[in-house]
Amino acid sequence: MLRILLFVGTNIAIIALLSLTFSLFGIQGLLAENGVDLNLNALMVYSAVIGFSGAIISLLISKWMAKRSMRVHVIQQASDSTETWLLSTVSRLAKQSNIGMPEVGIFHSHSPNAFATGWNRNNALVAVSTGLIESMNKDEIEAVLAHEVAHVANGDMVTMTLLQGVMNTFVVFLSRIIGHTVDRVVFKVERGHGPAFWIVSIISEVILGFLAMTITMWFSRHREYRADAGAAKLVGKHKMRAALMRLQSSQSGPDMPDEMAAFAINAGRIHKLFASHPPLAERIKALE
Fold first, then answer.
1. Residue 242 has pLDDT above 60, yes or no
2. Residues 6+ apart with CB under 8 A from 288
3. Percentage of the residues of the chain whose pLDDT score is greater than 90
4. Beta-strand runs (E) in 132-221
5. Three-state DSSP class for 116?
6. Mind telling me the catalytic residues?
């Protein structure tokens, strides 16, 4: 199964819940003019409300969801030299990037990995895996932390939200049009909407959602190059290159839930269209 990020998974669940709620309260009934034709203006507003609500709510709860799903231990007060070093390094990188100090956490995973999430640049979470701490030296870990801080400083999470909101809007809008068309043309429903409208709309929403995901993942791949470049400016190109080469040599796939893969530095080998990260070899070449 393809690895997708927690943000997208949460977003889909929220959209489904909002759609169901709107249906139960009869709001979708307002989309029809005279019970026959769709009111396209009303449909667009309806789609945008659902689409952007799903994306924004997903963003707002992203840090909480990440902590819960990854069982992240947030370092409130350092208990050893490693935690002390992690806190001081992230603090320094955050100051260099002119952002607020992120929360710093550690999650258990044998695979070397890290991720950043949060609803804005000054309220983020940067977390690293136990496998990353055990398999990398301090220069390489510093580069990985710089990569995640660069994601936060670049505002990638907010940009992802806006992009996802637009994608959601068109997915909901087009799925309702397809459902309406099938309902009228194939099943000859003359007024209101029959069962075919709801069934076809849901199926279309799923299919269009996967197509929209290719655009979201394209942006995710693009932001990885930007974060790599940002990390290179913060700690030096040689450290970022060494960290990527270490990841490349590990060979093992990331031991992370599917939902978190697109936030992670090492997202494994998956189909190119749905890949959240470019191949490590391409990232290394881009740095050079």
1. yes
2. 241
3. 49
4. none
5. strand
6. 148
Separation CA 55–CA 168 (nearest Å): 8
Candidates 273, 217, 206, 283; CA nearest to 248 is 283
**The residue to which tokens 């040599």 are assigned:** 249
20, 21, 24, 27 alpha-carbon torsion, rounded to 10° = -100
Task: Find, among 158, 154, 204, 210, the residue nearest to 52 by Cα.
Answer: 158
Q: How far apart are CA 230 and CA 237, in angstroms?
A: 10
Q: Could you give the strand order of the β-sheet that contains 114-120, starting from the edge strand earlier in sequence? A: 73-74, 103-107, 123-129, 114-120
- HSE (CB half, 13 Å, CA atoms) of 244? 27
Q: d(Cα 168, Cα 212) in Å, to the nearest integer?
A: 8
Q: What is the spatial distance between Cα 54 and Cα 87, in angstroms, rounded to a whole number? A: 33
SS3 label, residue 246 = helix
- Return all residues near 160 (Cβ < 8 A) that are at least 6 apart: 7, 59, 216, 219, 220, 223
- Residues written for the chain: 288
At 131, which helix (H) or strand (E)? helix 130-135
Q: Say if residues 195 and 183 touch (Cβ distance below 8 Å).
A: no
Can you give the pTM of this predicted structure? Answer: 0.82
